[in-house]
Design goal:
Number of domains: 2
Number of strands: 5
Strand content: 5-15%
CATH class of the largest domain: Alpha Beta
Structural class: alpha+beta
Shape: flat
Distance between the termini: 48 Å
Number of helices: 7
Order of helices and strands: HEHHHHEEHEEH
Strand order of the largest sheet: 1-3-2
Length: 186
């Protein structure tokens, strides 16, 4: 865990967030049409009405564009970069996000409650980051085990062979030269 991890964790959990209205589209043509309409009448109320009418996201549609504030390092860097570049009242460009297109209208920024990192906050961040990194590492190892495991279902008489390990990954492993249980030596 690096100081950079802790700084990003602090910014993500305790830093300012951008309050926005959002409209989500499933195609770029519709996004362009509604973006032009939003530019012609730059008010929060009109943008909310457009969200209610055109958004494919049920949350932003039912809440007239209101979505939870966007934070840094939340997992959508293109959305975060665009949101944090806006000033209150500004309209974003059309943002491609996965299979969707998003238009944002900035309504302001939140004020952070915790402004500096004391030892208690740092300890909580270290604990949280360690847990997240551990979960990611465990998921990678679990996937590797699932891919390489041979599964024999004796009840149904089926078998699933795992992927053989490459020579590079088996070099230096004491178990690589041992026979598999039940295998015959030649």
């Amino acid at each position: 865990m690096t100081d950079e991890d802790i700084r990003k964790g602090f910014d993500s959990n305790f830093g300012p967030r951008v309050e926005v209205l959002a409209i989500v589209f499933s195609n770029q043509r519709q996004a362009q049409k509604v973006w032009d309409m939003a530019r012609s009448n730059p008010t929060d109320t009109f943008f909310g009405e457009l969200a209610h009418q055109y958004s494919t996201d049920p949350i932003s549609r039912e809440n007239f564009g209101r979505v939870p504030p966007i934070r840094r390092y939340g997992g959508r860097p293109e959305m975060e970069e665009e949101a944090f570049s806006l000033k209150p009242g500004q309209l974003s460009g059309i943002i491609a996000s996965g299979d969707n297109y998003v238009v944002l209208r900035c309504t302001g920024y939140t004020t952070p409650v915790v402004r500096s990192m004391d030892s208690e906050v740092r300890a909580e961040l270290v604990k949280d980051i360690h847990e997240k990194k551990l979960r990611l590492t465990m998921a990678v190892e679990f996937d590797r085990l699932c891919e390489s495991a041979q599964i024999d279902d004796f009840l149904s008489g089926t078998s699933q062979a795992g992927k053989p390990r490459s020579r590079a990954s088996s070099r230096g492993s004491a178990t690589a030269s041992r026979p598999v249980s039940g295998a015959k030596r030649r």
